[in-house]
Amino acid sequence: MSISYHVPLELYYYCDMENSNNDDKWLCQLMWAIGFVLFVMMLSAFVVIKLIGDWEQRGQFGDLFGVVNALFSGLAFAGLIITIRQQHLDLKYQREAIEQTNQEMQNQTIEFDKQNKTMRIERFENTFFKMLEVQQSIVNDLYAGDSHSQWVDENSADGVYSKKEIPIQDEYRGRNLFYYVFIMCNHAIENSFLDGTTMVSGLSNVIKRRGKERFDDYMTTTMFDHYFRHLYTILRFISENEWLGADKQYKYATFVRATLSRYELIMLYYNGFFHPKMKKMMERYCLLNNIRKDLLPMSYEYYVFLREQGVSKEDLRDAHFSIGDFEYYLTDDENDDTRYHLSAFFSKGELDKGHALLNRWRTFIKDKKS
Question: Residue 164 above 50 pLDDT?
Answer without folding.
Answer: yes
